[in-house]
């Protein structure tokens, strides 16, 4: 019997030491080791002056060792649910003894992530006073948004361990950095001071510097919100751009959300409508149409047109927004009065495909790649679909669609003496997760129309805000010469005709105003859009124009732009 017992011991020793000693040594070591993730600190998202739009502050993760918490799992789960608002039923199984994927006893489980450091310290102190064992903490930075809703449509927000939308998502790799790791030995649930340990330090994320002016962004959001509420509209967009550099100083959406509490908002309000909402621009389009006609050498600001009250063109009758008989307008007057009929008559001088080529050079039908993801391209109809009827409607801003950033950059081309500059939200140069390089250092420019064509169009746009002859005197900024254009367009919705879904007009409107100042030496371009205003008499000049005036006035004064030294230019409107 003694010989038999000794032979069993001998066989086991041979198995442990002779056949596979490394495997058993690893299993033994695993029983007393813990693998820990060392979270990297996420980079901040900063405005142009270094003020934080999104930042990381000190925080902790609450960690559980299931081999020590199992006996008190229900009590600890209830305690954590009360103190940290975690899900009791998610935490409970993590506190009970279980195996890892490799079959080893679990010694490390995240129970709560991104807890402010002071809160985490208080929770652990209370846990100790209740004699709860197996709870520890680990550094785990907390993502915060100091301004709440300020720039939330730009930054996006962080979930527990995943970004959602905005710059947080498209620049996640650079912002997140690289987590580190640590493996160390434990005994009786405690770290062995002189035990083996291996540490790989975390690499913190990079800060992202935007072109946004946080104070201007705040003012734009509040002004836009009030305007949407006053107009009883569905939503609104406001863009403020540096004319010369294309830097976006403010990009406001309403309704928006607080990045600190995104769950409280509707999903559609957590997106950047300024980039992913496509709509028909209306009469703001006339700036592009008529400046292209001037650049092509086929018109001037003083050209004379006989404009009837309506125009019978193939499939439908084209009207103006006011009733009139046969009137005599200059091309400047066509723009000042925002005449659809006059614009179509002038556009008859374009050669086939000529207007579409100009609109493509202005950037319509193409993403701006300003810095955010999920951007709509809009719709610039293909040449094969560009019939004479479609061309007529496109000339005054219907039958094509744009996003607000595209339209801002297009109008800014006139302000920038005919040269289009890429709009951007990023200072310097940065690479998105999809590999695209963007930023002020890689921004490109291209000439779209001549400097003389841009000059003539600027003088024409000044007549739009004229107190006597223009349609938008409310867009004026005291002390400055303003060039601008109103827009009112029917909105396209999805409808069903004979069982087929298609786009159709539902009777609601998009109203807008785009312009720049000072007109003699433009510094900023501002574009305001309000969707579906429900008040009587809502239009681009009366509804969006006052918002433009406030935003432009604020920007000019904030950046110390000197008042205009000459009076508004007066071109003839009638002949």
From TrEMBL:
Sorted UniProt keywords: Membrane
Xref: InterPro entries: Beta-lactam/transpept, Beta-lactam/transpept-like, PBP_dimer, PBP_dimer_sf, PCN-bd_Tpept
Primary subcellular site in the record, as a coarse category: membrane
Compartmental location: Membrane
Single GO term (MF): penicillin binding
GO BP terms in the entry: cell wall organization
Single GO cellular component term: plasma membrane
Keyword Membrane assigned: yes
Span of domain Penicillin-binding protein transpeptidase: 236-552
Domain Penicillin-binding protein dimerisation: 38-159
PANTHER family for this protein: PEPTIDOGLYCAN D,D-TRANSPEPTIDASE, PEPTIDOGLYCAN D,D-TRANSPEPTIDASE FTSI
Family note: Belongs to the transpeptidase family.
Record-given protein name: Penicillin-binding protein 2
Organism: Nocardioides anomalus
């Amino acid at each position: 019997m003694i010989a038999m017992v000794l032979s069993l011991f001998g066989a086991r020793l041979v198995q442990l030491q002779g056949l596979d000693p490394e495997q058993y040594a690893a299993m033994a070591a695993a029983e007393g080791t813990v693998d820990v993730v060392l979270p990297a600190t996420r980079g901040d998202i900063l405005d142009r002056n270094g003020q934080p739009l999104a930042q990381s502050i000190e925080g902790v993760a609450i960690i559980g060792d299931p081999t020590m918490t199992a006996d008190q799992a229900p009590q600890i789960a209830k305690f954590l649910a009360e103190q940290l608002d975690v899900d009791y039923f998610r935490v409970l199984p993590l506190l009970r003894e279980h195996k890892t994927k490799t079959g080893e006893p679990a010694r490390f489980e995240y129970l709560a992530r991104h807890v402010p450091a002071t809160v985490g310290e208080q929770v652990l102190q209370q846990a100790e006073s209740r004699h709860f064992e197996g709870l520890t903490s680990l550094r785990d930075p907390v993502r915060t948004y100091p301004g709440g809703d300020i720039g939330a449509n730009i930054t996006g927000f962080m979930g527990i361990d995943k970004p959602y939308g905005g710059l947080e998502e498209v620049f996640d790799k650079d912002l997140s950095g690289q987590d580190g790791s640590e493996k160390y030995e434990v005994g009786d649930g405690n770290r062995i001071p002189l035990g083996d340990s291996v540490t790989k330090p975390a690499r913190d994320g990079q800060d992202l510097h935007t072109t946004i002016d946080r104070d201007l962004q705040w003012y734009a959001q509040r002004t836009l919100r009030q305007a949407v509420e006053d107009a009883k509209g569905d939503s609104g967009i406001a863009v403020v751009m540096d004319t010369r550099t294309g830097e976006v100083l403010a990009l406001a959406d309403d309704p928006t959300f607080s990045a600190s509490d995104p769950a409280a908002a509707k999903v559609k309000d957590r997106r950047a409508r300024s980039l992913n909402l496509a709509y028909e621009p209306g009469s703001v389009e006339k700036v592009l149409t008529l400046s292209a006609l001037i650049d092509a050498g086929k018109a001037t600001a003083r050209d004379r047109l006989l404009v009837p009250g309506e125009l019978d063109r193939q499939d439908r009758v084209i009207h103006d927004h006011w009733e009139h008989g046969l009137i005599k307008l200059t091309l400047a007057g066509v723009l000042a009065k925002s005449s659809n009929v006059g614009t179509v008559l002038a556009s008859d001088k374009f050669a086939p495909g000529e207007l579409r080529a100009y609109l493509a050079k202005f950037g319509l039908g193409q993403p701006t790649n300003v810095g955010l993801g999920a951007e709509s391209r809009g719709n610039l109809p293909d040449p094969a679909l560009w019939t004479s009827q479609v061309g007529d409607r496109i000339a005054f801003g219907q039958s094509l669609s744009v996003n607000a950033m595209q339209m801002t950059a297009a109008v800014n081309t006139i302000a920038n003496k005919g040269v289009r500059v890429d709009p951007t939200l990023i200072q310097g140069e940065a690479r998105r997760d999809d590999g695209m390089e963007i930023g002020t250092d890689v921004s490109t420019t291209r000439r779209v129309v001549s400097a003389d064509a841009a000059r003539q169009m600027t003088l024409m746009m000044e007549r739009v805000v004229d107190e006597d002859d223009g349609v938008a005197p409310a867009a004026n900024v005291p002390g400055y010469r303003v060039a601008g254009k109103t827009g009112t367009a029917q909105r396209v919705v999805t409808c069903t005709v004979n069982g087929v879904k298609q786009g159709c007009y539902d009777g609601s409107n998009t109203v807008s105003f785009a312009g720049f100042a000072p007109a003699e030496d433009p510094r900023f371009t501002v574009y305001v859009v309000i969707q579906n205003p429900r008040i009587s008499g809502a239009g681009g000049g009366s509804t969006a124009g006052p918002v433009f005036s406030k935003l432009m006035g604020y920007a000019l004064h904030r950046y110390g732009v000197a008042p205009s030294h000459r009076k508004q230019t007066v071109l003839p409107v009638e002949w």
